[in-house]
UniProtKB/TrEMBL annotation:
Coiled-coil positions: none
Species, as recorded: Hyaloscypha bicolor E
Listed name of the protein: SMAD/FHA domain-containing protein
Residues annotated as domain FHA: 128-191
PROSITE patterns: FHA_DOMAIN
């Protein structure tokens, strides 16, 4: 028969005491760290992988503000010169400004008497500023009666409804006088200042007291 003597009482108490001391020291080490929030504890119960307490997140960096400040718009109102001066622009294209489609070949013939001095391909751009200020205009007109920024030929996309309620859009040329000193004539009639007037094929334009005639043609 084997000797089934009971274990020593001292050794068992020693083992229990050491296990308690180990768990107490483990709890002390855990207590030194930050306690998890209620949301983190709830998440840990649902997902054991989320039981680790996350370190404190660094403060979020301030994001750059992309809101319009108006500085770009203010800068676009003038054109800087090489000598440090700037020229204030009297005209800016509207929201409906469009370049005419390729099928519409608008041309402007410049006449002096019976002679054609120049042919301008208007369809190349959406806006033509006419005047004596060579630094900013698109079409130079050097007669002294013409203002520095005299008038504009502007192509605009205009949308209208037909009798069935369908919207039909088309790019058309318009003429606007920029409150010039000596005015603009369209087919020998004075143009009201600061108002768009639609141009049509074979219209004739005159600026100031210049004898040159600008005839619009749609090829």
């Amino acid at each position: 028969t084997r000797d089934r003597s009971p274990p020593r009482r001292g050794s068992k108490e020693k083992d229990v005491r050491s296990s308690r001391e180990g768990s107490a020291s483990q709890m002390t080490r855990k207590a030194k760290g930050p306690l998890p929030s209620q949301a983190a504890s709830f998440q840990a119960n649902k997902d054991p992988s989320m039981a680790v307490v996350a370190a404190e997140e660094p403060p979020e960096k301030q994001k750059p503000s992309l809101a319009p400040t108006g500085l770009l718009a203010a800068a676009s109102n003038s054109v800087a010169q090489s000598d440090g001066t700037s020229i204030a622009l009297k005209y800016h294209e509207p929201a409906e400004a469009r370049k005419p489609p390729g099928k519409d070949d608008w041309k402007l013939f410049v006449f002096k008497g019976a002679d054609i001095l120049e042919t301008i391909e208007l369809s190349k751009r959406s806006c033509w500023l006419i005047g004596r200020e060579l630094a900013v205009v698109d079409m130079a007109a050097e007669h002294p009666s013409i203002s520095k920024q005299h008038a504009v030929i502007q192509f605009r996309y205009i949308e209208k409804k037909n009798e069935f309620g369908d919207k039909l859009g088309k790019v058309k040329p318009y003429l606007i006088d920029l409150e010039s000193a000596n005015g603009t004539l369209l087919n020998k009639e004075e143009l009201p200042p600061s108002r768009y007037l639609e141009l049509r094929d074979k219209d004739m334009i005159q600026f100031g007291h210049s004898t040159r005639e600008y005839v619009l043609m749609l090829s």
